[in-house]
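input
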Amino acid sequence: MTIKERLSRGELVRVLSFGSLATPKWLEIAAVAGGYQGVWIDQEHCAVPHQELELLCIAGRAAGLDVFARVAPTDYATIMRPMEAGAGLMVAQVRAVEQVEQVVQWAKYPPWGVRGMFLGNYEAGYGTVPAARHIEAANRDRLLIIQIETPEAVEQVERIAAVRGVDSLFVGPSDLACTLGVPGQPLHEKCVRALERVAAAVRGAGKTWGVLSRDPAHARKCRELGAKLFSIASETDLIHRGFQATRGLFPELFG
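output
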């Protein structure tokens, strides 16, 4: 089942992020040992080229994990290519509803948008899916998430949530706290007010929202406010936690 399907059913969805050390093996380990429903690949901050994203999508499908990519809202190809590999999209650093409308235009086929037709990819069954059926399925099924991580986005969040084609919103707490002038304080009252406004906006639009939450107290607050999609670790977080746990197991050797 896809992340979009799970969210539409009101389920709680757990995901990991991969970027600095993203490999197909990590996806396989996450599927076997992790208890997650999906992963997102960070193409905003990390050097993950499109060819590697395609391999990660293949690994995700083999392991039973849904995959989406985080990208910047810079250009048509950046938005469109992950979808052709079978990935959903999470678009970062949005500051205006006009940006969101442009993203939807790039991400959707006519009549919703201006995406160009190409059937020789996974999304279209490598040419085995009729064009009309492919267009209908892509416009309907491909996950599109918009990140809310700036005061400008918060001020327009009701309009952003209402844009046709946007499935979910996702709060980036580090950038949100930084841009609100309280870096490193995701539960500062300014940030909590922003979370409350996001939660109200998605309720009004009949949509869902998620969050990157590495702290249990932050995750608890977001869940109280109705968040359904939780990103709770990256591969580097897992490595750090593994190092820390190992030191705890052998304190006499690390004294």
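quick obs: Strands lie at 13-18, 38-42, 66-71, 88-91, 144-148, 168-171, 208-212, 229-234.
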